[in-house]
């Protein structure tokens, strides 16, 4: 009798374990891209010093548009902390726009005040301070780009595009 019970339990365990298969990792990882870089071009040595982003978007999970609201995805994440990614991309974009011929040292501090992702558009409001040998240039502006889809790929692309527009505004404000 005990042998029969043990045999039945072992059989159930084997059958049960064989029906459970490992599920593939459903988490997608996305990276902000510096869209203004040209491979092989020497970049100006320094530009963006610090970037701050609001807590509402500064996390590892992507905020995705869903109709008039935004949801935080459990399955879509940035490959790096979002604030660090924004800082990296803005730095590379600004350096690409400045080129390698600039002679003076420049630095810029960017404070992203608010970011809204709604109704098919990503809008970012920010202020900035250019710190140069000749003084400080301050300003504020907003930049908007449209999101072609509600998915994570389109959202990551929209952030990369808006950071390209922000870099262009920053460099234009300096001139």
Question: What does this protein look like?
Answer:
It is a single chain. The mean pLDDT is 76. Helix 2 (82-98) crosses helix 3. The chain has helices spanning 2-19, 82-98, 152-174, and strands at residues 28-30, 48-52, 61-66, 69-78, 106-118, 121-132, 135-146. Helix content is 33%, strand content 35%. A four-stranded mixed β-sheet has the order 2-5-6-7, with helices on one face. The protein is elongated. 27% of the residues are buried. Strand 3 and strand 4 (69-78) form a beta hairpin. The chain starts with a helix and ends with a helix. The chain contains three helices and seven strands. With 175 residues, it is an alpha/beta fold.
What is the secondary structure topology, with strand pairs?
Blueprint: H1 2-19, E1 28-30, E2 48-52, E3 61-66, E4 69-78, H2 82-98, E5 106-118, E6 121-132, E7 135-146, H3 152-174
């Amino acid at each position: 009798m005990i042998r029969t019970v043990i045999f039945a339990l072992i059989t159930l365990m084997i059958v049960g374990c064989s029906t459970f298969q490992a599920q593939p990792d459903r988490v997608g990882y996305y990276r902000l891209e510096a869209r203004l870089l040209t491979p092989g071009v020497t970049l100006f040595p320094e530009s963006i010093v610090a970037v701050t982003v609001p807590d509402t978007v500064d996390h590892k999970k992507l905020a995705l548009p869903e109709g008039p609201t935004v949801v935080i995805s459990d399955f879509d994440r940035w490959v790096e902390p979002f604030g660090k990614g924004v800082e990296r991309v803005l730095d590379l974009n600004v350096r690409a726009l400045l080129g390698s011929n600039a002679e003076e040292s420049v630095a810029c501090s960017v404070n992203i005040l608010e970011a809204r992702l709604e109704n098919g558009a990503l809008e970012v409001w920010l202020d900035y301070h250019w710190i140069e040998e000749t003084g400080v240039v301050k300003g504020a502006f907003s930049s908007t780009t449209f999101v072609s889809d509600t998915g994570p790929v389109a959202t990551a692309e929209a952030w990369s595009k808006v950071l390209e527009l922000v870099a262009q505004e920053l460099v234009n404000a300096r001139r």
